[in-house]
Amino acid sequence: MEHNTYHPQSRRDFLKNASAVLSTAFLGFCSNMKLSAAEKKKPRWELSCRDNLLAAFDAKTCWEAMDQLGITGVEASAPRRFISNSFFHNEIKYDLTNDSGLEELKRELKKQKKHISAFLMGNKLEGDLNEEIKYAEMVVNACEILKVPAIRIDVYPSKSSKEDFLPIAINACKELCKLVKGTRINYAIENHGSVTNDPWFLDQLFDEVDSKHLGLTLDTANFYWYGHPLKDIYAIFKRYADKTFHTHCKSIKYPEDKKNTQRPMGWEYEKYAVPIDEGDIDFHKFAEIMKTANYKADICLENEIFYRHKTPEGRFGELKREIDYLAKVTSI
User: Does the predicted model carry a pTM greater than 0.90?
Assistant: First the structure.
């Protein structure tokens, strides 16, 4: 028969063992605290969306729509007569053609704790340049009053070849940049279509205009849409990350045998466009590239396929999922 022998613990041993237990508990507590902090980490950049998305589902006001999506920023359209209401889809109408209307909107933005992260112009640089300057002057004035940091612009020909359009674009952009000299406002050319998705054109334009106020609205899907292989996309992002003043986030999911080939421009976009959390573009990589470039502006969702959902609930579910995904990948 075995006998259990009791060995009394010395005071020194007791304190030593108690200290070890407390240390283990404290380390576990700290680990849990770190995990909790990581889980609560906020996105590095303000999250925003295109204004047209705010009317895609049932919300009484644009502010309510932004709250439901979990964003504080919006890219607002700036049509030529600049009575811009596409993100105010309730009964309130703001006249942005005069300072009084702009001041009223400024007060409402402050009250709602929201921001216009960029205005979107629809430029026609091959047309009357004086008219383009007048158009831009209205938008720049609105930016100064509302503290909007970026103006997304179109640099796209309607009739000229890419080569013939380049000097026209250079001259027009030089004139536009004169309007914002000495301000914190920047023009952000969207890479889209057959011209500004071409690095050759962008490099020539940026070099010749040579202004710190001219950069990019970096559209994550459009370079891919243009035909650039997926393996080359991230190098293009890096190439222009330090010239980026605004973003459009969307994605495409091409068949495996097409991802890393040079495809025809716009090939089967309607068929293969998908939400950003389902596509080929790695937004974790994109976020790291922008972080390395010290990007400071907003991360803006653009969804061109929400209409596939026939109900407001379906459209909201997709947009909310995409915003939550952006919040996750940008919490770095």
Answer: no
